Amino acid sequence: AQSVAQPEDQVNVAEGNPLTVKCTYSVSGNPYLFWYVQYPNRGLQFLLKYITGDNLVKGSYGFEAEFNKSQTSFHLKKPSALVSDSALYFCAVRDGPHNAGNNRKLIWGLGTSLAVNP
Amino acid sequence: DTGVSQDPRHKITKRGQNVTFRCDPISEHNRLYWYRQTLGQGPEFLTYFQNEAQLEKSRLLSDRFSAERPKGSFSTLEIQRTEQGDSAMYLCASSPPWGTNTEAFFGQGTRLTVV
Q: What is the DSSP string of B38-107?
């Protein structure tokens, strides 16, 4: 079964410093991986995805993520954190056989709370 | 606003009452998902529609839960005889029919509080 782990409940970083939010996954077959961000009392906003191709994926708001197959990781990164980046970040993997083409529901990690301090 | 819309944003209800939530997906999206999110947890899949057909339903969805998408456009999620454990954020998402791995777009959610 597909699963996602976010080993850190909370990450604290000073504004201007680089940030990393960790994610590891377990899948059968090729992984289709996603990062979403959630601000307080808001829905989930898509940041970026890895389907195939370059291991470094660039997304919204200056975020990027590096797919590492040997370490089964998909860590989210940003070179210089902003206070406005403070939010809850979720890593997700697409469930099910990848040739199904129908249900693309996501299996989610528990989330990591990012706090960027001024 | 052409995003996914959910109504109401907040609902407080007494235990035992029935509640119904509505989701309007992005207009050209034929796939629609319902998830539930409790505090400190990631979203949990509840059910999935492709057009008007409900193709998958999670075991999390007890008999008190029912979802419909009668015309393949908006969807409703009804909870009968609500219990305190139903208190959560209910999220709706949609995705388009094209492409093989397009991302899902989420609404802002309906926060249910059962008292």
A: -TTS--EEEEEEETTEEEEE-TTS-TTEEEE-TTSS-EEEEESS--GGG-EEEEEEEE-SSSSSPPPEE-
